[in-house]
Description:
- The complex is a heterodimer.
- By secondary structure, chain A is of the alpha/beta class.
- In chain A, 39% of the residues lie in helices and 18% in strands.
- In chain A, a hairpin with a 4-residue loop joins β8 and β9.
- In chain B, the strands form two sheets. Chain B has a seven-stranded mixed beta sheet.
- The longest helix of chain B is centred in the middle third of the chain and has 23 residues, at 73-95.
- Chain B has a single domain (2-249), classed as Class I glutamine amidotransferase (GATase) domain (Rossmann fold, 3-Layer(aba) Sandwich).
- In chain B, 30% of the residues lie in helices and 31% in strands.
- The mean pLDDT of chain B is 92.
- Classes of the chains: A alpha/beta, B alpha/beta.
- Residues 28, 70, 104, 157-158, 198, 200 of chain B line the site of zinc ion.
Amino acid sequence: MLRTAAAVAAGKTVRALARRRGGGSAFPGLVAERIQPRILRGALADIPGGIVVVSGTNGKTTTTKMLVAVLRAHSRTVFSNPTGSNFTRGVLSEMLPQLPLRGRLEADLVVVELDEAHAMRFVDEVAPTHSLLLNVARDQLDRFAEIDHTADLLARLGAASTQGVVANADDPFVSRAADALDVAVRWFGLDASIADRLPEITEHDSRFDDVGTTRDPGPGDARLRPRDERSFDVVFPDLEVGPVTLHQRGLAAMINATAATTTARLLLGDDFDPSVAAAALAAVQPPFGRGEVIDVGGQPLELVLVKNPAGFGVALSTYGSTPVATMVAINDNDADGRDVSWLYDVSFASLRERGVALTSGVRAYDMALRLHYDDVATARVVPDLDEALDAFVAAHPDEPKRIFCTYTAMMALRRTLAARHGLAHFGEDTPA
Amino acid sequence: MTETLDPDGPSKGTVTLVHLYPREMSIYGDLGNTRALASRIRRHGYTAEVVDHHPGGELRADAHLLMGGGGQDSGQARVEADLEAVGPTLKTMAADGVPMLVICGMYQLFGNSFHTVGGQVLPGLGILDVTTRGNDKRMIGPVCLETEFGRVVGYENHSGSTVLGTGQEAFGKVLAGHGNNGEDRTEGARTLHVIGTYLHGPLLPANPMVSDALIAVAAERATGRPFEPEDLDDPLADEARGRQVRRLVGSR
Ligand SMILES: [Zn+2]
């Protein structure tokens, strides 16, 4: 007990200091954990409404944000890790300011996003009541090595969940994993009317014949039925949520909303109110860098994070219908994935007509070369990100602009944009 | 599936390029190698006929050029039976001088054998005199090699550790990275016109001189005449490669 109090106090102090320096988010958690190794387990021991882990390759941050918004709109107090610090110690660091010295977090529910590997470390400490399994795509193969391994990690997360799992019916890796579970599974997926758009968003697994995987929606299962490019309904067998129009554009965001809604209903049971859910989803602001729109000189500039072939493909198809001036910024730091070969698994044909204004980042020339092989012209190659940003804005002052960027390129660009255009600082998402 | 790419002007002849197992063995952007070859064949003024070879299909023994990529263990398991069936044909073609580029998993399968961590010995095709042992250490990261084609850059990601047989030529000497085994500074293997390597990335777009070496042999086989190259400019590839070389080995 004393040890817990000491751990909490030390962690809080370190966190306050780190914040003041604008520093990393894992260290305070590490300090607290050193003093009391079971601090996380203790902190989450009294959560009555459920401990939910959201995992998968793409869409964790957006989906988590949506789920939390829907739960809070239903008057639940929810702890979450909102800054995209999707690793166990990050969760703990985030929790410290709210943690009373006795070490028990006070909240109705806990919803955390964790990447697949860190989800395993989390479940070693704390058994989640529920998990939401989004998708499996090739992402930073140099970190997780193999897609099979990633799928296996999600299966283990599902198996560790004590009360229920929500799974993507359209992702062959996820649905195979969830089918094998003993715990109750709720499914979300695309409505039959748009099933032909599946290839855009899922990683096809050539080793299995993933044909005819249609499963009839059971009680509590939900389907996404778009009305147009922006609005949609989430359709349960017995009720509908919608129409919803999100701030964030594109099919991927709609699927995330469907996943969040399915999970919220499972958690809330009879208290779930479709109109409250619809209003909450509509109010969610896109997480930083995920289709975020910034006003630059009276014109919108969109930052779109890309990190793997499936995600880049979705981004291109989402935005392909509205041509704008385009820049692509590719770095190859650890957080980006050091291997840029995946760019050859993306088709850039949709950029052919308009061409690309600039490529930038450490691998600017590799990106221009990649575009060249798809017959997409690149007007300029400027590796320095700030220089590229200035040139891009100067060359296209009177039209909407879009930058596809890897993680560290996005961080750098946003920092510059923040300095010049007075944006919120990184990690300071406006509270919902 | 077969795709034909015609040159802008009159064609100097048709070069048939076979991509081995594009579904099962192309996880690391290996499709980029096939695209790079096809596009370059076309730019040199030849027609590129690109043929996908799938398990159970008939191998085009008249192919002038072959490309095979890396896969996961499960992908390799799916092609094993077919590879056994077409193995003798591949071996004959290789000995006859057909140019081939095999990457990562396919490089291992082109060797003598693969010894798993569990002690199992999986026979290979024996086209390249190399032996691979599975181990727990994964060799990952950017690579720069000195080869007879010049400096080559790429990315490696393999846990297999490969040793060359006596007299087996390497593809290149490691200037930066791990290479075949992280110890003897060799990377890949080369016999006649067969190149095996761990470099995906994919290898060819940034290293067009390797493409040209393969295409030169293929074009000659296809037409019976010496290769008639066009004078191609590669400013983007040269800059992309040059920057990686400088990052990895400095200005040595
Ligand atoms: Zn490899």
